[in-house]
């Protein structure tokens, strides 16, 4: 039986080998991704990717738990990290602990992730000293969509020190890894060199300790929007469209179902 990775196993990879992460939201995809990844993130991006929400702000703790449970049923070796959704941890360290404990208890995941730097320092320390492993997330923090004014690059020019201090604060507070989203590559390298836990980049260049992408993005499931930091490794959106179109055409032309997909009225002795 394979042993599922724990947060310290991820920390141990820093400086040794690049850490491979993808988001996963469902059991069948987690089964596939688990075989190739060190860490599977049940991201609150699930709200946008699978539920059609305009931002991650409408994601509930119940949604995160349902998707976390689905992923945990088939993830056998990768560490599973579940995002804490907007509104579930910002009020106080106590609120964060209560909801993190619920997520870990109901999903069996190994860690939670939350957004924020210096202002989350006390919360991260409160959680990590009480048995909750925390992955931090700084730079572009999508739950701050409204106050940041959209999804622009963070940490450019004079803003670099803010993002640097955020990352260092979360590492000092006990985070076992720090997600760096949409920041200049140079800044990501500075952070990676400065902290002793892994940085996991998304739109943060090649010098992070690991990389993460949204799995539907690498699949090419979306046709409408392309982020610069996404590399598409497939065009499944086009494939899916072709499959649906062909099915629709065959139903309309009565080509489907054929005899091989249909049942006769008498019981036959069959080898299958
Ligand atoms: O929700 C998410 O998918 C994330 C990653 C993209 C880092 O937070
Ligand atoms: Na997220």
From TrEMBL:
This is 3-methyl-2-oxobutanoate hydroxymethyltransferase. The active site is at residue 181. It is an enzyme of class 2 (transferase). Keywords: Cytoplasm, Magnesium, Metal-binding, Pantothenate biosynthesis, Transferase. It catalyses: (6R)-5,10-methylene-5,6,7,8-tetrahydrofolate + 3-methyl-2-oxobutanoate + H2O = 2-dehydropantoate + (6S)-5,6,7,8-tetrahydrofolate. Homodecamer; pentamer of dimers. Catalyzes the reversible reaction in which hydroxymethyl group from 5,10-methylenetetrahydrofolate is transferred onto alpha-ketoisovalerate to form ketopantoate. InterPro entries: Pantoate_hydroxy_MeTrfase (IPR003700), Pyrv/PenolPyrv_kinase-like_dom (IPR015813), Pyrv_kinase-like_dom_sf (IPR040442). PANTHER family: 3-METHYL-2-OXOBUTANOATE HYDROXYMETHYLTRANSFERASE. One of its GO terms (cellular component) is cytoplasm. Belongs to the PanB family. Binds 1 Mg(2+) ion per subunit. It holds the Pfam family Pantoate_transf. It comes from Nitratireductor aestuarii. Mg(2+) binds at residues 44, 83, 115. Its EC number is 2.1.2.11. SUPFAM superfamilies: Phosphoenolpyruvate/pyruvate domain.
């Amino acid at each position: 039986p394979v042993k599922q990775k724990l947060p310290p196993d991820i920390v141990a990879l820093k400086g040794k080998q690049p850490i491979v992460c993808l988001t996963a939201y469902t059991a069948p995809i987690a089964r596939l991704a688990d075989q190739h990844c060190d860490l599977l993130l049940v991201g609150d991006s699930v709200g946008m990717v699978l539920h059609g929400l305009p931002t991650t702000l409408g994601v509930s703790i119940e949604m995160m738990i349902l998707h976390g449970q689905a992923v945990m049923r088939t993830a056998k070796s990768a560490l599973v990290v579940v995002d804490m959704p907007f509104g579930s941890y910002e009020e106080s360290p106590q609120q964060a602990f209560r909801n993190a404990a619920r997520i870990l208890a109901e999903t069996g995941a190994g860690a939670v992730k939350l957004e924020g730097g210096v202002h989350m320092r006390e919360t991260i320390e409160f959680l990590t000293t009480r048995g909750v492993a925390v992955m931090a997330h700084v730079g572009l923090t999508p739950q701050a969509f409204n106050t940041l004014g959209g999804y622009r690059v963070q940490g450019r020019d004079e803003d670099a020190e803010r993002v640097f201090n955020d990352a260092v604060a979360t590492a000092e507070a006990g985070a076992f890894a720090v997600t760096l989203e949409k920041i200049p590559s140079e800044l990501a390298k500075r952070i990676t060199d400065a902290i002793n836990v892994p940085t996991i980049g998304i739109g943060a260049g090649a010098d992070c300790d690991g990389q993460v992408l949204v799995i539907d993005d690498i699949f090419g499931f979306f046709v409408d929007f392309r982020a610069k930091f996404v590399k598409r490794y497939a065009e499944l959106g086009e494939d899916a469209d072709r499959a649906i179109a062909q099915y629709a055409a065959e139903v309309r032309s009565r080509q489907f179902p054929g005899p091989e997909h249909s049942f006769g009225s008498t019981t036959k002795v069959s080898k299958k």
